[in-house]
Amino acid sequence: MDETERLSALIGDIYDAALDPTLWPSVVEKAGRFVGGSAASLFARDSVHKTGNSYYAFGVDPHYEKLYFEKYIKFDPLNAVYLTLAVGDVISNSNIVPHAEFIDTRFYKEWAQPQGWTDNVIASLEKSSTSIAAFVVFRHEREGLADDTTHRLMRLIAPHLRRAVLIGKVVDLNKVEAATFAETLDGLGAGMFLVDEAGRIIRANTAGHAILAADDFLRVSGGRLVARDPQTDRNLRDIFIAASNGDSAVGIQGIALPLTARNGERHVAHMLPLKSGARRNASETHAATAAVFVHKASLETLSPPEVIARAYKLTPTELRVLLAIVEVGGAPEVAAELGIADETVKTHLGRLFEKTGTRRQADLVKLVAGYSSPLLR
After folding, report:
1. Which residues pair with 225 in a beta bridge?
2. CA distance 35 to 32
3. Which domains are delineated in the chain?
4. Cα 273 to the chain's mean position, in Å?
5. Each residue's pLDDT tens digit, 273-300
6. Measured between alpha carbons, how far is residue 102 from residues 77, 99, 273 in Å?
7. Lowest mean pLDDT among 88-97, 109-118, 139-148, 166-175
8. Angle, in degrees to the nearest 10, between helices 316-327 and 331-338
9. Residue 330 exposure: Cα atoms within 13 Å on the Cβ side
10. I need a labelling partner for 11 at 20 to 30 A (CA). Which of 106, 142, 160, 270 fits?
């Protein structure tokens, strides 16, 4: 198959996994190979406490996967970067750390090199003030560093991965059989609507009916699901039409589509196409082209490190060194902890002093402590 055919088939598999989590291992493998890697993982990690978990992976040695989360997560060169990534960002290790510097780190020598990995490409799928959910594809030495093509392919699938992950989280069921999908979601806390390409409501669950009864940010007009805000309603109509044209047509539209109630309360809508794959069985004799999930939006706040990085315009590497200074101590200790040269740490320290207006490492520690107020959490 050519790239377009492979992409279309992969997107269909991704959306099927939103309803059937048992499909995720296969999807992760197909997505990893599509992007151009030898291994991949769908994972989450807390960037402040340096903890995390891999939910689905392919090509990753379980021994090294366990070692990463137990030991090497704190040496990951991208630790500071995870704190500053926006949802939808796509980056590679080689974008942040020069390869010559990376291969001199403890992380590379003890964890990446034994597996033959030389680079990666990561897509941020979901984020809170301290944690991130992401999809990573690892590049083997024979594949070389991630390039523009690698990033382009990751950007093609990242929005669909994110949508499927978010919908799976909203549904919050161990497994939903597509054939009984519509019948089993009445107990779901989120509102759910099955709609056709014109937005006509074919079915709604109990929570969905409650949303419509409130006649606030969503309502019914002529049997059609309508958003109170005109621009949001236009976006909804475009998404309904796109969903009727197949999985790949949905593109990046409809991810976390914001909805605001009259009292200012924020909600979010996620769209799941129902025209292809196993999801067709959920579409009420195929009349429905999409499922719309609506739930309250959670408040996301910036973590203290992210606030510091933005306030002082720190690069990811500078933030990484700053946090290490606070956690570990002096330049020699930081160099040993991060697996980089003393002179490299001193260079970054000089830039940190200049950007923050401080003169001593103790001042940097005080600066970070000042941003750790509970009011910022």
Report:
1. 220
2. 5
3. 3-171 (3.30.450.40), 178-296 (3.30.450), 304-376 (1.10.10.10)
4. 20
5. 988 777 776 666 568 888 899 988 865 5
6. 8, 5, 41
7. 166-175
8. 120
9. 1
10. 142
